[in-house]
Amino acid sequence: MTDFQQENHKLTADEKLNLLVEFGTRISSELRLDKLLDIIARQITRMLNVGRCTIYLKDIERNELWSKIAQGKGLEHTEIRLPLDGNNIAAIVARTGQTINLQNAYADDRFSMAIDMVTDFRTHTLLTIPLKNNTGKVLGVFQVANKADSTPFDNKDEGILLLLATLAASSIEIAKLYQDIHVAQLETIYRLAVTAEYRDQQDTRAHLKNISIISYLLALALGMTKKEAELIKNASPLHDIGKVALADNILLKPGRLSDEEFEIMKSHTVYGGRILEGAHSKVLQVAHKMSLYHHEKWNGTGYPKGLKGEDIPLEARIITVADVFDALCVSRVYKKAWKTDDAYLYILGEAGKAFDPRIVAAFKKIYSSVRKLYLNQTPQTQESPAIKAEAPKAPVSIPQKPLPPQP
Ligand code: C2E
Ligand code: SIN
Ligand code: SIN
Ligand code: FE
Q1: Which atom of ligand 2 has the smallest separation from the CA of 115?
Q2: For a FRET experiment, which of 44, 173, 365, 401 has its CA 20 to 30 Å from that of 371?
Q3: Nearest alpha-carbon partner for 298 in 347, 351, 355
Q4: pLDDT (tens digit, 9 = 90+) per residue, 55-94?
Q5: Which residue has the CA at smallest separation from atom 8 of ligand 2?
Q6: Based on the structure, what is the number of domains in the chain?
């Protein structure tokens, strides 16, 4: 590298101040932890002009430090985990709260080369500082390697990195809190949905999981953003929540329902609507529309309101296709399971009748994936071990905690 090129990489005081302001602004508006850590790492790489920046956060429950690989061939988003009580640099800094500055990482036996090996990176100089919150609690560490000018990290670098860490700490804590709340919310939703469904479902978890996956794929096939599709996925398990209000003699009736009984059955939509009415969270607002309108039909012959066409909220038009397809594919007290491909043909035949033709077209696009999902699950009448083994995984992105026992 010539002097001229090096000069080009050095930042003026003004540029640094601008970066600092930009850093503060960008990190304070990001609530998603993954994105936040990514932004912080990229900004630090730029501001300190280093080869790599890694952020490790403490995972108290597992007594580990974890980090996502930001760079590296095909390894993006892979998680690295180090034992918090181990003899590696990051863990020592996290435990002691003291900075470690190595001029030659490979000469220090506390440095673990394993990460360099997987990321195809050669660490020379390595500066590792503690990430502390405003009460002094260590949340993790920031680690930077290899200054562009190949000089060792000095006091100034340490000062800048500590300053950035101080700026970043509260954003990281807030994002972690949001993540915890989000996970807790999804778990609560899921458990609520299980409560509503497990009286009339042989395998509630598989049913809820399949419906949420189909809804998600439909939303994506319809061109929705990943965020919108996730909202639909997360809300979908609640569509039949109103069934909690139905008596066993109707919900569990082995044969056909009388007209009178079916009228009562229909009220599960209205009950669901009431249970979720006026919700504040986005996901429950979507669930509200789904539970109230998931039995409306495109041609206006559905219930409870007999809404027609695009008067039916899109979220409900999506869940109804997922719900009917899954209901056909499984056995109920009142019916046998259909063959997957027969259920598919039924859905196609209902385009423009029960279902929005656009959504049926989207279902066509995703059907090969859906088919695989169902073919991998042996029919439920057989109480298959395959489904049992799958069950605890239940809807996508829901924590793998034990579920309440089936009655
Ligand atoms: P579900 O069992 O979850 O079924 C959801 C929807 O899937 C049904 O809404 C219907 O549109 C479709 N579906 C399910 N099985 C069949 C089928 O064998 N043939 C056809 N063509 N479509 C089917 P629907 O009809 O509004 O029923 C709502 C809920 O009412 C059902 O939810 C189920 O819990 C209950 N239900 C409906 N019919 C009967 C019945 O004859 N006996 C009993 N015990 N329950 C029934
Ligand atoms: C360590 O902290 O010892 C490992 C860090 C790394 O290789 O990036
Ligand atoms: C959020 O706002 O928490 C993300 C939306 C979601 O996936 O539920
Ligand atoms: Fe329903």
Answers
A1: 7
A2: 401
A3: 355
A4: 999 999 999 999 987 665 566 667 889 999 999 999 999 9
A5: 115
A6: 2
